[in-house]
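Late entry, evening session. Most of the bench is empty. Finally got around to the prediction I had been postponing all week. Sequence below, unchanged from the version circulated by S.P.
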Amino acid sequence: MYFHTIIVGGGPAGLACAAALASKGKETLLLERKSRIGPKICAGGITWSGAAQHIPDYLIEKKFHEQHLVSSLQNTTIGAARPIVFTIDREKMGQWMARRAQKAGAIIKTGEQVVKIDEKQVKTRARSYKYDYLIGADGSSSLVRRYIGLPVTKIGVGIQYCLPGSFPEMEWHLDPCLFKTGYCWIFPHHDKTSVGAYACRQDIKPARLKAGLHHWMDRQNLKRQNLRPEAALINFDYRGWRFGKRFLVGDAAGLASGITGEGIYSAILSGENAARCITSKAQSTPGLDNLINKQQLHARLLKLVGRNRLTLKIMPELLILALRMRLLNYQALELGCQSSIKYTGPRV
């Protein structure tokens, strides 16, 4: 069976790409190894300047005009006239994106795990599909990336617990003793709250990160008994995204932020830009280029901060101080920027 473009992976990057390609009349097949589109281990935080203003309002669970920042020496609140961060349900967002892609004409097959790739076809456990263009949207452990021949050395780890009930405030805690270059968070949703920690795996081993999270939760009197921890890898080892007729998007390309671990907006933006390059032969991708430059800056800053104990201790304090004095705003920490991504169709 032949398709103009085959997309491996049904996350935001793959679904955005599928919708854009199908809307231009390209025969598009998306293969997702899971039985259902949408479920993802994710804290569910998105920013206004990133993905939040480009999705239907009903997908947004909570809006936060204030962010509470805590370090060893500071405890402060940063506010803004418009919401800074929103929380969403990733499964509902994935389902919405899947409906949009299917309405445009894309074919989505779930429960189809890709086991082999060559120059002309993709093989799953059940069948083979031929293609002209191939999109790797299969996350941090991307098979398409391995086929292209790119290693992954820069990778983050996120660990979270979903506590019942919704907390009133969104919080970020920077504690180098527990999380090294990373942080822990409290992200409230409708009827649950994500409590977790993120850090670069090169700076702290996952087992130690988990122990640090447990210690911090005990200190905050946050009960985790009878709750199962969830963990995910976050690839920020960017080494390119266009390789002839093969593309990498989202986490497969390593486009997440090494500092924050956020990658939803970069996934959507890269997926749409890959489709644009295929359908219009476009060579210029200014929005994505700006995001990549910022992502690379984040990676360099992360390396600098983790270089020695002094910078590891000082940088979180300087960061919060700069935010308090409005020398720095949240957009400096986000990969999100204004772009052409705009959903104007029906709220299906």
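Two things to note before I forget:
The helical segments are 12-23, 90-104, 143-148, 176-179, 206-219, 264-280, 286-305, 309-324.
The first helix runs from residue 12 to 23.
Will write this up properly tomorrow.
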